[in-house]
Design a protein that fits this description.
By secondary structure, the protein is mainly beta. It is 14% helix and 37% strand. The protein contains 5 helices and 14 strands. The chain has helices at 17-20, 65-73, 86-91, 102-105, 172-175; strands at 24-25, 27-32, 38-43, 46-51, 54-61, 75-80, 110-111, 120-121, 126-137, 148-160, 165-166, 169-170, 178-180, 186-188. A 7-stranded antiparallel beta sheet has the order 3-2-6-9-10-5-4, covered by helices on one side. A 3-stranded antiparallel beta sheet has the order 1-13-14, with no helix packed on it. β2 (27-32) and β3 (38-43) form a beta hairpin. The chain starts with 16 loop residues before the first helix and ends in an 11-residue tail after the last strand. The chain binds flavin mononucleotide. The site of flavin mononucleotide has 17 residues, from β3, β5 and α2.
Length: 199
């Protein structure tokens, strides 16, 4: 099948787009608002976008708390959402008021970060402490405002649970990160193969 992506006339019961860009890693974003309240929310429009220096991005549909806090305070932390943490991750996606501490709401333990103010989560085996870099606003349909914005941050510090490092390598099978598919579906990384690049 083919369909016009502007018209989005796929004719299916649900928009297939996110099921086609899958799996998507989940950035679990911790920020602190100017009101001092800790905010935590998952973003599957998330990825790494540079290694020297290291950058990450997440894309927000409208200016949600994570984007606003990152922009207003200049800092955020990305945590890894694992299979064990899936329900707590999901709890933090609830649309609650900005004076609700979502780390507390999900029963997670805040731990001070080293270089930035937003806390990391003790239960998450990986955390990237980030300095907000800039936001790129993507034009909406027919150039309208109010669509998605890409929030970019430079990674300043990395936490890794020592228990997942084996012979100097991160054993991703010990991390068991979850990833977003389409609809209400997720995947967990539990199947790894190696492919050496030519040359
Ligand atoms: C697994 C998962 C991935 C999500 N990814 C995104 C995303 O990429 N962009 C977005 O705007 N919302 C996404 N959401 C919804 C937000 O997490 C939700 O709107 C949340 O309330 C935003 O919180 P905040 O206002 O504290 O930033 C996702 C939700 C889940 C459960």
């Amino acid at each position: 099948m083919f369909y016009d992506a502007i018209e989005n006339n796929h004719g299916l019961s649900h928009d297939p787009f996110k099921a086609l860009v899958a799996p998507r890693p989940i950035g679990w974003i911790s920020t602190i608002g100017t009101n001092g309240v800790v905010n935590l929310a998952p973003y599957s429009f998330f990825n790494a976008c540079g290694t020297d220096p290291h950058y990450v991005m997440f894309a927000s549909s409208g200016r949600k708390d994570s984007q606003r806090n990152a922009e207003e305070t200049g800092e955020f932390v990305c945590l890894l959402a694992t299979y064990e943490l899936r329900d707590k991750m999901n709890t933090t996606s609830a649309g609650v008021a900005s004076d609700v501490d979502e780390m507390q709401l999900a029963g997670l333990t805040p731990v001070p970060s080293v270089l930035v103010r937003p806390p990391r989560v003790k239960e998450s085996p990986v955390a990237f402490e980030c300095r907000y870099y800039r936001t790129i606003e993507l034009p909406g349909k027919n150039g309208a405002a109010g669509g998605y914005s890409i929030v970019l941050g430079q990674v300043l510090g990395v936490h890794i649970d020592d228990g997942v490092i084996v012979d100097g390598l991160v054993d991703v099978s010990r991390l068991r990160p979850i990833a977003r598919l389409g609809y209400q579906d997720y995947s967990v990384v539990d199947n790894i193969f190696t492919l050496r690049r030519p040359g």
